[in-house]
Design a protein that fits this description.
alpha/beta, 5 strands, about 35% helix, five-stranded parallel sheet, 2 domains, 8 helices, Rossmann fold, about 240 residues
Length: about 240
């Protein structure tokens, strides 16, 4: 009986010590802990921030060139609204939990002017249960170090998630933007946020809308196939949070 008592005492102590050592390891440079799924089944609001791949504001369509060939207020250049990656994500989320509210917004103005961007424009969107941030493409990669871009990126994330309870999902660019994508990935890993890479997808031109529009900048956007690939990569990272 005494031997059994000591075994019951020693074994949990050993495992406790092992857990502490694992936590210490996670603090070493280059080592990050896997995300903790403490919010499983508790995600009720999702916010997706991005650029034209997320949404084209209707005012941009109305003020744009009449011969651009683009006509939709959804993710450029998906053939229909339900084929862009945002609406594909909404579909997959609602198949598990129809009560989840998903909001999305184009913040390309932040990409082009992050130094002076008024983050208060996003006040109505603060503190979602999950933030998916997919920006990169419109950022000048030659100036990100000089301008300390990542500090403004961090400011944006923290401003949106002031309660520090949101699951953060960091996504790089569809068009490779090496300097920016590297900083974004490093930022995600250093903060133990979920990271999704999509920067290799545009190398396959069938993932783009090449040849479908007169303007090259529109044709460079994801095709329906490219949108599915983006959505699948993000969904693979977040789907466990929506389990019942």
């Amino acid at each position: 009986m005494k031997k059994l008592f000591w075994l019951l005492f020693i074994i949990p102590t050993c495992f406790k010590g092992f857990a502490l050592e694992v936590n210490k390891l996670s603090e070493l440079p280059g080592i990050t802990r896997a995300p903790v799924y403490y919010n499983i089944g508790k995600i009720k609001t999702v916010l997706i921030l991005g650029n034209s791949i997320v949404q084209i504001p209707i005012e941009a369509i109305l003020s744009g060139p009449a011969d651009s060939g683009w006509y939709g207020d959804w993710g450029m250049a998906a053939s229909i609204r339900d084929s862009d990656f945002v609406h594909l994500l909404i579909r997959d989320i609602h198949q598990i939990d129809p009560s989840v509210v998903v909001k999305f917004k184009n913040i390309a103005d932040f990409e082009r002017g992050y130094v002076s961007y008024p983050v208060s424009n996003l006040d109505s969107l603060k503190n979602p249960d999950m933030l998916i941030l997919k920006i990169s493409e419109n950022i000048n990669g030659k100036k990100v170090v000089e301008d300390n871009f990542i500090s403004y990126y961090d400011k944006l994330v923290k401003y949106i998630t002031t309660n520090n309870q949101s699951i953060k999902v960091i996504v790089d660019g569809f068009f490779a933007n090496a300097n920016v994508d590297r900083l974004i990935e490093e930022y995600a890993l250093q903060n133990n946020y979920l990271f999704v890479t999509t920067s290799s997808l545009s190398k396959d031109t069938t993932n783009t809308a090449k040849g479908k529009f007169k303007r090259a900048d529109i044709s460079a956007h994801p095709s329906d196939k490219g949108m599915r690939m983006i959505e699948q990569r993000i969904w693979d990272k977040i789907k466990d949070y929506f389990k019942k």
